[in-house]
Write a structure and sequence with these properties.
With 365 residues, the protein is α/β, with parallel strands linked by helices. The chain has 2 domains: 174 residues, Glycogen Phosphorylase B (Rossmann fold); 175 residues, Rossmann fold (3-Layer(aba) Sandwich), CATH 3.40.50. 44% of the residues lie in helices and 16% in strands. The chain has 16 helices and 13 strands. The strands form 2 sheets. The chain has a 7-stranded parallel beta sheet with strand order 3-2-1-4-5-6-7, with helices on both faces. Helix 3 crosses helix 4 and helix 8 packs across helix 14.
């Protein structure tokens, strides 16, 4: 009989992408996958490789809102009861949660049933849902060597496996970095525009437009940007005579990352680990409003290794970014060193490592 794993994830790609990578690794080992999330699951996970998708009652709340907290607690308990009914039907060998409130009901149901459970934390700072559930699960795996805000029972006992990345990104680990030549094109990839507001969607084009003419003529820019900022960004690039492709979303991120000489983006857990696996130098701009500065802590992995520069929102200006870009783009040797440093801290086989933890947990080890 095939073993069954319930994978609980949802909400954002930051949770779904590593969950999908794990699912694919387990399927290759002969497992059957059930995806559990909140009740919107059917709408956003159509390509997830699961034999079955279930939507469970779930809700979140704002800190300091006791009424919202009570309502969320009741919703999660309803979802947990739904999960327990499902578990009696399918008999999962293990339940794996990837954080965020959509994963909570499936894990709570498994904890109440005393089933084997695993949590994977993608960020360097443990998220709120994982923080509450971590003391009660069988094992905790994490992406970064440092896991801040972990409960005392968990701290120091987590298993570092890395952040599972999509197969197309994993393949970039074998692709060497090709630094720019003295007079060749300079290929820049700018990501994270959906969370960047003006900061990334418009400030980055302004900074590139402020570069010396010799550099601007060599630029080839690919930028994700907010829909409402598209025309502004296009106008800035057009007036500066900079070759630029701008869109709200790029599907072939692996191909674009492979071609990039330098990446500018946010430092979400998935992005940081993808830049490391790809071995691409980066300028990281942590989201200032992120809870517990998780993006700032994620960025430390690459910054301390020498694979990235970090630009804090409070200190970022057109002039400061343009100056940093001028120095980096005129120094191919440094870009190559940054690329090597980023790759040195990557864990390209994170999906397989996490699958090992899941299988060991299912066996009671």
């Amino acid at each position: 009989m095939r073993k069954v794993a319930v994978v609980a994830a949802g909400g954002t790609g930051g949770h779904l992408f590593p969950a999908q990578a794990l699912a694919e690794a387990l399927i290759a080992r002969g497992w059957s996958i059930v995806l559990a999330s909140d009740e919107r699951v059917a709408g956003f996970a159509g390509e997830f490789p699961a034999e079955r998708r279930i939507g469970l009652s779930a809700a979140t709340y704002k800190p300091g809102d006791p009424i919202g907290m009570a309502r969320a607690g009741l919703a999660v308990m309803r979802g947990a009861m739904q999960a327990r009914a499902l578990y009696r039907e399918i008999g999962p060998h293990v339940v794996v949660g990837f954080g965020g409130y959509p994963s909570a009901p499936a894990l709570v149901g498994a904890i109440l049933d005393k089933r084997p459970t695993v949590i994977h934390e993608q960020n360097a700072v443990m998220g709120r849902a994982n923080r509450m559930l971590a003391p009660h699960v069988t094992k905790v795996a994490c992406a970064f060597p440092t896991l801040l805000k972990a409960p005392a029972k968990v701290a120091g006992h987590q298993i570092v496996v890395g952040n599972p990345v999509r197969p197309a990104i994993r393949a970039l680990y074998e692709v060497p970095y090709d630094p720019p030549t003295a007079d060749g094109p300079l290929r820049l990839l700018i990501t994270g525009g959906s969370q960047g507001a003006r900061l990334l969607s418009e400030l980055v084009p302004e900074a590139l437009a402020a570069l010396p003419e010799g550099l601007k003529r060599r630029l080839s820019v690919q930028q994700q940007t907010r829909a409402e900022s598209l025309e502004t960004a296009r106008r800035i690039y057009r007036n500066a005579v900079i070759d630029a492709e701008i869109a709200p979303f790029f599907r072939d991120m692996a191909g674009r990352l492979a071609a990039a000489h330098l990446v500018i983006g946010r430092s979400g857990a998935g992005s940081v680990c993808e830049f490391a696996v790809a071995g691409r130098p980066s300028i990281l701009v942590p989201l200032a409003i992120a809870i517990d500065d998780d993006q700032g802590q994620n960025a430390r992995l690459l910054a301390e290794a020498g694979g990235a520069e970090v630009a804090r929102e409070s200190q970022l200006t057109v002039a400061s970014l343009s100056n940093a870009l001028d120095k980096l783009l005129n120094n191919p040797a440094r870009l190559a060193r940054m690329a090597a440093a980023a790759r040195a801290v990557a864990i390209p086989d994170a999906a397989e490592r996490l699958a090992d933890v899941v299988e060991a947990t299912a066996r009671g080890r």
